[in-house]
Amino acid sequence: MKSFQRLSPALWIVFAHLCLMAVAGIFVVGSLLVEPSQGGGFLGYSTGRWIILLVNFLVLAGVLFATYRVWNNRTGKLEAWLSNNRNLFRLFFLSLILFGISLPAALGWIPAIRYFAYFGRLQPSLIWLALASGQVWLTLLFLLRKPILDWFRQFFPFDGKEPEPLPLVKTQQVLMLGIALVYFALQWGSHIQVGEAFWLPDSIDYIFPAETYAWNEFGLWAHTKPWGTAVLYKLAGSSPVTIDAAQTILSALAWLGLAWVFGKVIHRPWLRVTAFGLILGFSLAPSVQMWNHIIQSESLSISLMVLIIAVWLSLMQRWRWEKLFALIFLFGWWIGTRETNVYLSLMAAGILVLVGLFYKRQRFYWAVSVLLIFFGYINMQISEVPTIPRWLYPLTNTVLHRILPNEEFLSFFEAKGMPVPPELMALSGGFANTENFAVFNNPALDDVERWLYKRGKEVYVRFLIRHPVYTLTDPWIHVHEMLQPKGLFSYAPEQYRPVLGWLFGALIYPNSIWLVLFLALATVATTLIAKPWRDSRAFWLILGMLALFFPHFYLVWHGDAAEVGRHAIQASVQLRLSLWLLLVLAFDSARMAK
What we know:
The chain has 594 residues and is mainly α. It folds into 3 domains: 2-153, no CATH class; 170-385 and 484-593, no CATH class; 392-450, no CATH class. Helix content is 72%, strand content 0%. It has helices spanning 2-5, 9-34, 47-71, 78-82, 85-106, 111-114, 119-143, 145-153, 170-194, 204-212, 218-221, 227-236, 240-263, 269-283, 286-289, 298-317, 321-335, 339-358, 365-383, 392-403, 407-415, 422-425, 434-441, 446-466, 468-477, 479-483, 502-508, 513-530, 538-547, 549-559, 564-567, 569-593. Helix 2 runs antiparallel to helix 7 (119-143), helix 9 (170-194) packs antiparallel against helix 13 and helix 16 runs antiparallel to helix 17 (321-335). The longest helix is centred in the N-terminal third of the chain and has 26 residues, at 9-34. It is globular.
């Protein structure tokens, strides 16, 4: 007892943790012993169960022995080892890794482990490992909170080197305020003019979960469409009037936020005022504004994308924890708004990891990457929950509209086992809703539906890989369908009248592919001359936004063959907006150089 009383505070903590581990280990070994055996009796245990029991028993014996050694204060070099912060940091990260793996494994969240034949036998051991590593990690997190925070500071993306913009004179301030007030009045006037949001055939898939399910019911989050828009309608109210108002206000605030924050990275006052008005004018173009008056996910997804850019720009200007949390929240909501946003966020996470490898002060964004991957994984799992997985309907569109009419493509799918009855060929060139959703409702096509569900996605991915020329060139052959779609304004309500003239809107948001190409060439030329990357970190964020347009472009085209113009609207906004922002940054750098 005297030796026990002489324990240092560090060994007291070690002793307490070992005792908790020992108690948990006794329960684990006991549960393995008392669980009935199919072979009957203690000697009827299977070989796998004997191995698991033996391993747990040896680990428990080691924990009990270590507890005895600490009780008698026979720790040797343990106390000296614990006094070294470097060792504690290693133990901190090791316990974090073990906890991060063992907890989801114990809960059955890792399919490879969940479907293992001995998962039921392993589960108590995994729970034991999760409890042991979790308590060690939490203890070290508390004890090392200051050193850990100091260590993390070297990876914070803030170094205070962003040049300060020139101050605005009173005339410029008044002008910007006037532009903002007129802009908000025009947005609200558009809402009053339309009155209520317009219904499309898919609108019910967002309204139904918002009206039917409570916040704690899974149906709100796992309906036939991504949950993000349904959540907005749940918050704002599901009547078309409130939906129109909510989408209009959110859009206006998002674009005002981006205009203001982007203006702060521009160093020349009058160019800042011009950029402020340009961004707000861009959002009033019919191709952007009309979605505020439609019950679909386009308005919310575009607004959240704009808010993400605005918050990220603000975070680059001045580091604040609340900005980081806002960025993570916006990303999480945006990922849950459209399926393509999941894959774009995963690509953004990969870019952040690569940037962190080269720039030490950007490594804190690795935490954002982990969360983006987590959000993406959760949403992918949710998309599989509905009776018809979300990917099955667009895949059916693609197979009917693009695969069946092409003999070469069809032979590839047929060779992979897809049934091709005459009833299927009769749907060639159509979509999933052809002949009253025949693929899902016609008994003669049950084998086709079953094959699409079980193997369709895998075979389609292989098809895209095996046909690289088609995969890479087909979207550009049909670029007009995506970036200059015909009939796009047929989605708008009859009451909608653009607040800007159609010509003015077309210039700020160039509808013509040739005008987009001209804007791209002007941006590239001005950027190469002015070299804005030398004095503006915002340039890299906007460049990343432009770079993500290209995978977005391919995702939209190969993801669904129906309503490509509507599905591509966010990518169209992303392309045009990033080109304008880069052009303004290039002009600003050119003027600074003078």
